[in-house]
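anyone seen this seq b4? input:
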Amino acid sequence: MTNRTKTFFVNRLARSICFFTYTKKDGTTRTVRATLQSSYLPPITGKARELPKHYITLFDLDAGQWRTLRTQGIRDFAWLEKEVY
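predicted toks r here
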């Protein structure tokens, strides 16, 4: 996959529903439909934890849970064209 930055992914997640295929630390592959659009997010409670700069936190729409993934593990990435601002 092309070398895209964390900022690129976060900006796209904030405006679209995105699809990631990535390799987890244990070597398995996972596909997730995710976003950071506030209309899809549950209320945020608790304290945010500090993550290394190459990690992305996103909301998995199918599982209804927060996920964290490494940008180096992303194998495929796409988004819906209809963006919400």
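The mean pLDDT is 90. The first helix runs from residue 6 to 15. kinda curious what u guys think
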